[in-house]
Amino acid sequence: MANKKIKINRAPVLTLWATIVAERLGYNKNEALTFGKAVDGLNAQSKGRRLGIYEEKKEEGKEKESKREKPVEFIELLGRGVPAIKTPQGLRAAIKGEEIDPGSVEKYLKQKFGEDLDEARSAMEKLAKAHTPKRLEAEAYSLYEKFRPKIPEGTKGWGAKGELDLEYIRSLAK
């Protein structure tokens, strides 16, 4: 295998990694896809606020409560509390009471990674399997910080692409 480097931004990398970690922790593929997308979205929101790209939201109180008919539970993943709801198809991450569609997450990953998706998934799965679920749960985010694409600091890095080194990810599994 050649040392493959993919030019990609961090959002799909975090989505895929969080999905793989969720699968390693015992969630099925569709549940994991929604959790992966939610982790990425939550991270983007907090980083965007920190950089001044997004404004802090004021809590809408009553409106927020009325929108949420389904009871929400929180799944801990990569240091984030991901809001999840039970659906007839299983658990789904839900943002503002709306469940995330696993099919749209799969499509997003295919679009962003293109022909490199399977190889990137394989490298990340190898890394996830190199750890017990309990250890992975504790170290997943710091592992991501080691292999995520390097981008410029601050607002210059927002949406910027960097290199994802698949060989480096595989080496972290050893």
Structure report:
This protein has 174 residues and is α+β, with helices and mostly antiparallel strands. It has one domain (5-51, 63-172). It has helices spanning 10-24, 29-51, 62-67, 102-113, 117-129, 133-147, 166-172, and strands at residues 5-9, 72-77, 80-87, 90-95, 98-99, 161-165. The strands form two sheets. The protein has a four-stranded antiparallel β-sheet with strand order 2-3-4-5. The protein has a two-stranded antiparallel ribbon with strand order 1-6. A hairpin with a 2-residue loop joins strand 3 and strand 4 (90-95). The chain is globular and about 50 Å long.
Brief summary:
This protein is of the alpha+beta class. 52% of the residues lie in helices and 18% in strands. It has helices at 10-24, 29-51, 62-67, 102-113, 117-129, 133-147, 166-172, and strands at 5-9, 72-77, 80-87, 90-95, 98-99, 161-165.
